[in-house]
C-alpha cells in the first residue's frame, strides 16, 4: 500500500463536558476515495472541522506528506491543500462564478497590482472545461442549481490546487442525475491523484464510489478496510455494535387512550406520508439519520410549520394548529432541538425564561404579572429539574449546556402538557444530566403524558421507547415495537435498505 | 456560595450600567461645579430637568422600539405633526382645555405609530426603512397641514402656553407628566406580559415563536407606544416653546437614540431598562447644559453629542465582549 497523504494519529478533541473525538486514527492516500462512516454525533464533522482548521485538537498529531501540520485557521488549511465542500454550500450568491472561485486568493497583475479578471476568467473557463461542466463563468451563483453550486465549490477546490478534498454529505440535496454528474467528477479527481474524504449516510453511494472506509462511533475509531472486501452487514455492525453500557430507567408502559392520530401528514420538500397513533403514557421514539425530516414532522404537529397535506386528530377532534399558541392551548409542548436558538432567550433571566410560556396564566387580568406567584411557579418547576445556577435571577447564557436544557424542560412542564415532544433532549449534555432527562421522560409517561422522543442515539431510542417510528429521507419506513426492535433492524430502516430490497423484489 | 464582601458588591454595582452612569454623572459634575458654582443651584437644576423632560418621554418610546430590535427614525416628524396639529386646534378653539390637547396629540401620534408598526409587522419592511420613509411623509404632512405657516405665541391661548410651566407642589406640570410616563412604563416593562414579550422578541425571536409569542402584535405595540409618546411630546413642545414651527424637532430621533444607547440599551434588542434610559437622558442634559459653563461654544454641542454616542457604543461593545470571554472561560474551567 502506498504512503499516506494525510495521517491522523491519536487525535482527541474535548468540549466542555463531552469528548467529541477520542484518540482517533485516519489515513488518506492519493487517488483514493475514502468513506468516513458513523451515526450522527460519531465525531465525523468534528474531525472535518479539525482538518479544515476550524477547531484545534486537544491532543494528537496530524501529518501531511510526512510533515507535521497544525492549523491556526481555515486559511492555513487551505494553503496546505485541504479543502472542504460543505453541506450547506458557503458561497456568495450575488457574485459571479469566477468571483466566487477566486474569493480569498484573487490573482493580481504583477505590474499594476490590479485584480486580473481576464486571467481569472480564463482559468475558471479552463477548470470548468476540464471537469466537462456547462457553466458560464460570468453567471451569478444565485442563478445556479444546487448541484451546479456543488460543482463550483469543487472547481474552487481545484483552483486552490487542493490535494485533499473533503465532501461532507455532498449528495444530500441532489437528484439522481446530478449525483451521477458528481460521481463522474469525483472519479476524475481520483484519476488526477487527489485524495477524497467522502462523508455520507447512504450506503449505496459508499459502495458505488468509495475504495476504502473508516468507521467512527461515539467519537472513537472503530475500524477500517477496503470497501470491496466488506458488505453492509459488517458496516452496520461497526456503526451500532456497541455494548449498551448506559442504564435506562425502567418504564412499565401503561398505555391509555389514543391522544393523537396523524394520517398522511406531508410537507413539500421536507417529509411525505407520515402516519402514526400516539397514546397516553406511551413513549414514541422517532429515529432517522440527519436529513430524515424528524424535526420538521414535530414542528408541523406543534404548528410552527404548516402541513401541505394530511390530517391530524387530537382526542378524536380534527386538529391543525395555526401556530405554537394554538397547540400550547390544546396541551402540546415542544422542547426544540436547538436550545440556544429555539429554546431560550439567552439574555433573559431563568425566571423570565421559565415563566414565558405561561405568562397569560400568571397575569392578573391578562396584563400585569404578579411577581410572587411567578417566583413560586418558577421555583416549583425549576427545583423539580434541579437546575444548578447562582439563582433564578441570573441570565440563561451563564449556564452550562446541561443546565440550560433543564431550564428548557422546566419551562415546558409547567404548561401541564398532554403531549410532550422532545427533539434531541440529550444532545451535547453530560452523562449525569442525560440520566436526569431520561428519568424525567419516564416520569412524565408514568403520569399519563404521551411522549414523542426524537433522538439520534440508537441506544437511547431503544432504551426509552415503547414504539419506534423510523424515517428515511422524509419517508416513514417502519413502525417497530420496541420489544422486537434491534439496533440492527432500526438502522436498516433508517438507511432504508429494507425498503429498497422489498421494492426490488 | 455567593460572594458577599463589600468589594464584590461595588464591582457588581459598577457592572450595571445604571450605577456606572450615575457615578460618571457625579464625576463630571465636580469640575463643572468648581468652575461655576451656580451650576448646581436649584434654578439651574430645574432648568436642566425641564429641558430634558420632553426628551425623556420620547426616549422611552424609542427604548421599546430598540428593545424589540428595531429603530424609530420618525419620532421628530411625529412630534412636529402633532405639535402643529395641537397648535392649530388651539388657534381655532382657544377655549379647548390643555389637557384635552395633550390627549389629542397622543391620539394623532398613536395613529402615526400604528402606521409604522403595521408596515413593519405585516408589510415585513425593516424598521429602519419604514421609518426612513415615514420621517419624510410625516414632515411633509406637517407642511401640508400648516400650509407652510407658523402658529405664533399670540395666536395661542394663554392657558395652553402656561400649562407646562404651571407648577403643582413646586414641580412643573411638564416634569410631572414626564415622571408619570417614566413610572407607568417602568411598571409596564417589568411587570406586564407584553413588556416581557418585547424583551423576548428582541432577545430571540425564534425562541419566542416556539412559546407562542405573537411577534406581529409586539412589533405593532412598540411603534404604537413610540408614536403615542411622541404625540404627547409634540403637544407639550408647542406649548413650552410657545410656537408651532414646521421644522420643529428636526433630528430629535438622534437624541432619543443617544439617550437609549447611553443608558445601556442593547442596539440589537433584548436588553436594557427604563432607569438606564432616564439616566442617559439626564446625562445628555447635563453635558449640553454644561458646555456654555465651560465656555465651549454652542457650535460644539452636536460634535460633543456625537462623541458621547460613539464612546457609549464602544463601552457597550467592550462590556459585551468581556462578558462573552468570561462566560467562555467559565465553561472551559
Topology:
The complex is a heterodimer of chains A (505) and B (333).
Chain A lengths: L5 E10 L2 E11 L3 E6 L6 H8 L7 E6 L2 E2 L5 H7 L1 E4 L11 H5 L15 H14 L15 H14 L4 E5 L7 H16 L3 E5 L3 H7 L2 E6 L2 E7 L5 H9 L17 E10 L3 E9 L3 E5 L6 H9 L6 E6 L2 E2 L5 H6 L2 E4 L3 H5 L6 H6 L3 H4 E2 L3 E2 L1 H14 L16 H13 L5 E5 L7 H16 L3 E5 L3 H7 L2 E6 L2 E7 L5 H8 L2 H8 L1
Parallel strand pairs in A: 3-8, 3-9, 6-7, 7-8, 13-20, 13-21, 16-19, 19-20
Antiparallel strand pairs in A: 1-2, 1-4, 4-5, 9-10, 11-12, 11-14, 14-15, 17-18, 21-22
Helix pairs in contact in A: 4-5, 14-15
Chain B lengths: L5 H10 L1 H19 L6 H26 L7 H18 L5 H24 L5 H20 L11 H5 L4 E2 L2 E2 H19 L1 H11 L1 H6 L4 H26 L11 H11 L11 H20 L6 H33 L1
Antiparallel strand pairs in B: 1-2
Structure description:
The complex is a heterodimer of chains A (505) and B (333). Chain A is an alpha/beta fold. Chain A has two domains: 6-240, P-loop containing nucleotide triphosphate hydrolases (Rossmann fold, 3-Layer(aba) Sandwich); 258-504, Rossmann fold (3-Layer(aba) Sandwich). In chain A, 35% of the residues lie in helices and 25% in strands. Chain A has 19 helices and 22 strands. In chain A, the strands form five sheets. Chain A has a six-stranded mixed beta sheet with strand order 6-7-8-3-9-10, with helices on both faces. In chain A, strands 16-19-20-13-21-22 form a six-stranded mixed beta sheet, sandwiched between helices. Mean pLDDT of chain A is 84; it is low at 500-505. By secondary structure, chain B is mainly α. Chain B has a domain at 39-249 and 267-272. In chain B, 74% of the residues lie in helices and 1% in strands. In chain B, helix 3 crosses helix 12 and helix 3 packs across helix 13 (274-293). Chain B has 14 helices and two strands; from the N terminus they run H-H-H-H-H-H-H-E-E-H-H-H-H-H-H-H. Chain B has a two-stranded antiparallel ribbon with strand order 1-2. The mean pLDDT of chain B is 86. The longest helix of chain B is centred in the C-terminal third of the chain and has 33 residues, at 300-332. Chain B has helices spanning 6-15, 17-35, 42-67, 75-92, 98-121, 127-146, 158-162, 173-191, 193-203, 205-210, 215-240, 252-262, 274-293, 300-332; strands at 167-168, 171-172. Chain A binds chain B through residues 16, 302, 304, 323-326, 328, 334, 336, 341-348, 352, 355-357, 359-360, 363, 366-369, 371, 390-391, 397-398, 400, 411, and chain B through 2, 191-194, 196-197, 199-200, 203-204, 206-214, 266, 270-271, 327, 330-332.
